[in-house]
Specification:
The protein has helices at residues 15-26, 40-47, 79-86, 94-102, 116-129, 188-191, 194-206, 276-291, 296-305, 332-345, 360-365, 367-374, 398-404, 415-425, 442-450; strands at 6-10, 30-34, 51-53, 67-70, 90-93, 106-111, 134-142, 147-150, 158-162, 177-180, 213-217, 228-232, 238-246, 249-256, 268-271, 314-318, 323-327, 351-356, 379-382, 409-412, 429-434. The protein is α/β, with parallel strands linked by helices. The chain has a 10-stranded mixed beta sheet, with helices on both faces. The protein has a 6-stranded mixed beta sheet with strand order 16-17-21-18-19-20, with helices on both faces. A hairpin with a 4-residue loop joins strand 16 and strand 17 (323-327). The protein is globular, with a radius of gyration of 22 Å.
Length: 454
């Protein structure tokens, strides 16, 4: 990994891969890559001087590559992958690279099936506000830095990293301190069942440094042998109480039990994020940053100035006629949290949700959960299932999901007809949700509602 070499990325358009690509370019490497689909993210990378192509064409691979970074989502039959293997080029997964970087300095790792991106962005913003020397890899675009990566230097004090459980990736990391936000059944196409998913999370926390700490949400099935503290809203070591929205901002107080190791008891925090799930994300971020030596006053300043993450309860339009919120939610628990927050923040508005299911296997595994969570909305518009890396599964369709939803108004819709359908409804509060390509509609709806062209 000598500076000045050539690094080639297979699947460069992913949120995590693009962050690494930017990191290596900033370190003096020549960076190029392949991705199946052109997107705003890949276009930004090209604008930053990274060469990208979108066809599986081995003739477009640069010569004299030093090593290849690949995403686990790359199919085994990709021509470029097999040609690179035949050349005996060093090929590493993204997680292995993060693992190497995590051994350079103290690593603050944020894991969990939900909440890890917002929490990682919060930790990053707090540490930057405190003036700490850090690098950071975030699974979304933090609005404070308009990026998914903070590029530091060889003498960084900390590495902040979103620890992804997909494909067991987080087991490559060597954390100093860790957060686990949640362990809900997900990625069962990888793990098979919930027990194996839980075992992987327990293996992750066991990698934590003996000098550090593991901070995890109350009631998680974690078996701890390391120093640890729990957080939550009820019976944890550190809890958030008196949660309320005042002047458009969320306020909460921290209460602690036993020894107040962070000197946080009774402190009140204010932030421009909504929902009990985000209060708990903030609570975890506050704890790990306090453990890392950031003072309470700086943490308060950082929370108040945090601008959020794109596609995480991302309020794109808010005026007298329309409210438009975009969210990455693609699991029943995430949908429930986001819609419940919308009900609380906008209690008098009729709620319409446009949802694009992600993966046939996930839709099959959580069909009833999706139906229950989506039924919180007054109106549900379902798009077809986004297949990503999967082939269709017989009987697993958006139509089957629609039948189980109990909202008073529900419908199927194609992507081609979505804009005209929404125009015809003229919703006062609308949320788009999903992890597929539904984000392509965000600028369209933002323009539509900003101009009130409905």
């Amino acid at each position: 990994m000598n500076n000045g070499g050539i690094v080639y990325f297979l699947g460069i358009g992913g949120i995590g891969m693009s962050a690494l690509a930017r990191y290596f370019k900033a370190q003096g490497f020549e960076v190029a890559g392949y991705d199946r689909t052109c997107s705003p993210l890949t276009q930004n990378l090209e604008n930053e001087g990274i060469k990208i192509h979108y066809s599986d064409n081995p003739s477009l691979i640069p010569e004299n590559i030093d090593f290849v970074v690949m995403t686990p989502a790359i199919p085994a039959n990709l021509q470029e992958l097999n040609v690179l293997r035949s050349r005996n080029v060093k090929i590493v997964k993204r997680a292995e690279v993060l693992g190497m970087l995590s051994r350079r300095c103290k690593t603050l790792a944020v894991a969990g099936t939900h909440g890890k991106t917002t929490t990682t962005a919060l930790v990053t913003h707090i540490m930057m506000t405190a003036g700490r020397k850090i690098s950071s890899f975030i699974g979304g675009i933090s609005r404070n830095i308009n990026s998914n990566v903070v590029i530091g230097a060889a003498d960084d004090d900390f590495l902040v990293v979103e620890a992804d459980e997909f494909d067991h990736s987080f087991l490559q990391l060597s954390p100093f301190a860790s957060i686990v936000t949640s362990i809900d059944a997900d990625h069962l196409d990888i793990y098979g069942d919930y027990q194996h998913l839980t075992e992987s999370f327990n293996e992750f926390v066991d990698k934590n440094s003996d000098e550090g700490i593991v901070i995890y949400h109350e009631n998680l099935p974690i078996k701890m042998t390391k120093k640890h503290l729990t957080y939550g809203l009820e019976n944890a070591n550190v809890v958030a109480r008196n949660i309320q929205i005042v002047n458009g901002l969320t306020e909460f107080e921290i209460m602690t039990s036993d020894d107040d190791v962070f000197n946080l008891h009774g402190e009140k925090f204010v932030m421009p994020l909504y929902g009990n799930h985000n209060v708990q994300n903030a609570l975890a971020a506050v704890m790990i940053c306090a453990f890392s030596g950031v003072d309470v006053a700086t943490i308060k300043e950082a929370l108040l100035t945090f601008k959020g993450v794109q596609r995480r309860f991302d309020i794109r339009v808010r005026d007298e006629k329309h409210v438009y919120v975009d969210d990455y939610a693609h699991h029943p628990e995430e949908i429930k949290a986001a819609l419940t927050a919308a009900r609380k923040v906008f209690p008098d508005k009729e709620l319409t949700v446009v949802f694009q299911p992600h993966l046939f296997s996930r839709t099959r595994d959580f069909m009833d959960g999706f139906a229950e969570s989506l039924s919180i909305a007054d109106r549900v518009i379902l798009l077809d299932i986004y297949p990503a890396r999967e082939l269709p599964i017989e009987g697993v369709t958006s139509s089957a999901l629609l039948e189980k939803i109990t909202s008073r108004d529900k419908m199927l819709c194609t992507k081609d007809n979505l804009v005209s359908t929404v125009k015809g409804i003229d919703p006062e509060l609308i949320m788009t949700m999903g992890a597929g390509d539904i984000d392509r509609f965000v600028p369209v709806f933002e323009s539509l509602f900003t101009k009130n062209d409905v």
